[in-house]
Design a protein that fits this description.
Elements: H1 2-31, H2 33-38, H3 41-56, H4 60-90, H5 98-122, H6 125-148
Helix pairs in contact: 3-4, 4-5
């Protein structure tokens, strides 16, 4: 009898570990990180433009302008991803100084400001407001998803 209980306990522990590993794999593929890596900058920009066209009812002229903006952004993002991967492959990542981190954040914020100004020129006021609301909702959902796994485990609600 005791042997059966021990065997069942071992089997359950093994299954739980297997299920957790499957969950991690599923989340990794669900996020789409690998799918983004396989797409070219042009493909990523086209997909983003089509999504925006559907959500914001863009006209043909706006679609062309947004496509160019998305292509520029996707090309930069692809280059940054490639650089990060190359640094990762080299070994230990270089620790940035506080000045380098500051300059990197300034450059990133300047790029966001410039992108926002370009979008305001391309989109109507209503379209831009809708775009901003969509972006905020996506950020909230990402934060909730990111923090959702830990929330509640250590808190009493």
């Amino acid at each position: 009898m005791m042997k059966k209980i021990i065997l069942i306990a071992i089997a359950l522990i093994g299954l739980q570990g297997f299920a957790q590993e499957q969950g991690r794999e599923g989340r990794k593929h669900h996020r789409g990180d690998h799918a983004q890596m396989d797409l070219t900058a042009e493909q990523m920009a086209t997909l983003q433009t089509k999504r925006m066209t559907l959500a914001l009812d863009l006209n043909a002229s706006q679609q062309e302008d947004i496509q160019a903006l998305n292509l520029e952004k996707a090309t930069k993002r692809k280059a940054m991803m490639a650089e990060r991967q190359a640094n990762k492959d080299k070994g230990a990542p270089k620790k940035l100084t506080s000045e380098e981190r500051y300059n990197k954040q300034i450059a990133m914020l300047d790029a966001k400001i410039a992108e926002k100004a370009k979008l305001q020129k391309i989109l109507s006021k209503e379209q831009f407001e809708k775009f901003e609301n969509m972006k905020k909702q996506k950020q909230r959902a990402n934060r909730k998803h990111k923090n959702g796994d830990r929330k509640g485990k250590y808190q009493n609600n």
